[in-house]
Amino acid sequence: MKRVPCMEAVVAVLESEGVDTVFGIPGAAILPFYAALQHSSIRHITVRHEEGGTHAADGWSRVTGNVGVCVGTSGPAGTNMITGLYTAMADSIPMICVTGQAVTTKLHQEAFQAVDIVEIAKPVTKWAVQLKEPAQAPWVFREAFRVARSGRPGPVLIDLPIDVQRGTCLYDPELDAPLPVEVRRPLPQVVSRAVDLLTAAKRPIILAGGGVIIAEATEELRELAEHLQVPVQVTLMGKGAFPEDHPLFAGMAGIQTQTRWGNAAFLDSDLVLAVGARFGDRHTGDLDVYRRGRRFIHVDVEPTQIGRVFEPDLGVVGHAKPVLAELARQARDRGPAGAPGKWVRKVGELRRTMARRDDFDDVPIKPPRVFKEINEHFGRDTTFVTAIGLYQIWSGQFQTTYLPRRYLVCGQAGPLGWEIPAALGVKCAYPERDVVVVVGDYSFQFLMEEIAVAAQYRIPFVIVMINNEYLGLIRQAELPYEMNFAVDLHYGEGGIDHVKAMEAFGCPARRVEVPGDLADALAWASAEAERERLPVLVEVMVEREANAAMGPSLEAIKEFEPLPELISVDWSD
Q1: CA–CA gap between residue 24 and residue 12 (Å, rounded)
Q2: Distance from C-alpha of 71 to C-alpha of 39, rounded to nearest angstrom
Q3: Between vectors from CA 291 to CA 289 and to CA 293, what angle results, nearest 5°?
Q4: How far apart are CA 553 and CA 288, in angstroms?
């Protein structure tokens, strides 16, 4: 074998693993890695903050399904990455963060920008490791990719002392390749029992979580649902796993990101087949209400996830794709495809009669109207990126999604500022796709410096800002305390003129204050982004008192009286 600089071997590993873009900031302690990177086929995007770099790598990973990569130097670069690592860990996103480090012999002497980033990162990674010898370099990176992809995917951190980076190793890329990743297959007898339960139920639903999208199992999901004629709900992380205009789509249940009719359908179900879902508390609410009157089958690739929140009636350990494929195969072996029955018709009636209004003409603008215009203007293949707050809740309730990996949201960690850098990653992965960021005014301000990155590299996308001039979700949470404290953000009292801020970055922006101007503004933004190759902002001023419809549990549905004509019909087959 040929002896090469060990960082050249590392970069060769990145190329062979399918990495075409990395996000990062160079610094003294990571320069040997950068020296090797400059001679590769990999594009480097210089971000303005390492947290922004992790979110960009996260967005790239979510939309491609591959392992995203972020790079930084020693000390604060690594600590700045912790939020991004936590976000990826919480949402099962495969990502590798690479940090530079001080010379090995100085690590115990409080050297400049030397911090034990491995110990800091361990709680928010699948694996955190420091390279000790140059000869380990290509093999540690190979294992990092395998770990990031395996089982429940997640992030890895690799720390590179600068003296180790300067070393050499024996490496021949012709003799190396990505390590195989185990695909956990279910036991046939467990799948058979699951089919027994599904076919015996009178009102079953399938609950598709983010694991269905991660596993690329949407076709298998659709095949099973259509064969058995079982309605399908999605979690927030599962949006896009099942097309929302499909006759079997049964909405979303939950206490925040939900539909009224989805809650009603869930509460009337008698069996739930949950695939790749964690039963997060924002979905379940009160577990007594959530579980009462129905049985549960829980499918997950991670064995310790089953029973973590509550004990299901049947646990199935396996990768979502082979599990759904085996469920469909065994269902086909038992009989021909079914026809829509009374239960499917009831779900359809719930959808028809219990949908929330979104056609308001009020001034100030009501948030549902914003999503009505978004749904009508942008095509099915558009990729939407959103983060956390009232606008995420409104998005989950009103925004329609049809395809996998087209609705990206930081669901569990919920870091403000995630969406702008994540959109950078999405657009770098698929330059030809329309990318739309749905953002709140406060979240935009967290990492708005990454707008400069998009402007520098001519990375276009549309930003739709829903601005109520409040910390809206906190203000709504304060209401039971009869307080309205420290949440005002309007102009003249600490607020930012976002149109002028965008213009300072050299990017177009427009403010909308009446609903009749929304359609024209969105059309203008799409055209400007394409023409100028820049991010473009449409700031929508919505009513300051707007709240999201949510409650302490699924019993929130009780505020809406069910229609008598639905109650009087026996919908059981």
Answers
A1: 18
A2: 16
A3: 90
A4: 9
Choose the final residue of a domain: 140, 175, 210: 175
**158 and 22, same structural domain?**
yes
- Residue 249 confidence (pLDDT) above 90: yes
Based on the domain organization, do 242 and 314 belong to the same domain? yes
Supply the CATH number for residue 387's domain: 3.40.50.970
Looking at the whole model, is its pTM more than 0.90? yes
pLDDT in tens, 388-411: 888 888 888 899 999 999 999 988
Who's near 296: CB < 8 A, 6+ residues apart? 271, 272, 274, 310, 312, 313, 314
Tokens 């609705």 correspond to 407
Strand partners, 72: 99
Contact present, 42 and 15 (Cβ < 8 Å): yes
How many angstroms separate the CA atoms of 366 and 372, rounded?
11
Q: Which domain holds residue 417?
A: 367-541
Residue range 323-350, pLDDT digits in tens: 999 999 999 998 898 889 999 999 999 9
- CATH classification of the domain holding 279: 3.40.50.1220
> Is 182 part of any domain?
no
Query: Do the strands 168-170 and 3-5 form a parallel or antiparallel pair, or are they unpaired?
Result: antiparallel
